[in-house]
UniProtKB/TrEMBL annotation:
Keywords, comma-separated and alphabetical: Glycoprotein, Signal
Protein name listed in UniProt: Uncharacterized protein
GO biological process: cell-matrix adhesion
PANTHER family: STEREOCILIN RELATED (PTHR23412), STEREOCILIN-RELATED (PTHR23412:SF14)
Presence of keyword Kinase: no
Amino acid sequence: DVLTTEVVEMVLRSEGRWGVSDIGRICRIQQGRSAQTVLLSKKLSLATRVVKNIVKRRREGIPNCIDIKATFPTAWSSSQLAGMADSEFSDCLGILTSDQDLSAEHLKTLLTRTKQLYGSVRSMKPWQVLQLGQAVTQLSDRDLQDLDVSDLGILSFLGEMDEWNKKQTLWFPAASPWSVIRSGNLS
């Protein structure tokens, strides 16, 4: 069998590095949704082999950060991600929340788990908010109001997110810094 666990891990790591490169991001933007779905399906098929081997080795089937890096976050269920040890989860949070293919269920799980570690959004330090990555789109109205939008790093980060729901976008007043960020006029 040519596709050993090590080969699959190497392919997935390589694809992950390519996906976050400038060219990879441009290609992803230009791909149609169906092409992205096909690619995700192929990645999941490959990752299933690795995940099964890990689950065989560990009775509980909970990944650690090395397992996440060897595959990708979407390859794991929400409950498996929620079950990660605190130190593993916090060490891997930036990787977990940067996966563009995470479902809303995954993102909600990651947000809940992050709040368990760091406390409420109001008490989070700016670097902790930035670690939320895609999970920031799952913040409640209350959480959004509690964010320190006077921090330009957080403000810029929030402005880069595309997956806001209608209710969240209505929360951002037209005269707020949000409109400035979206227009690109930060001078």
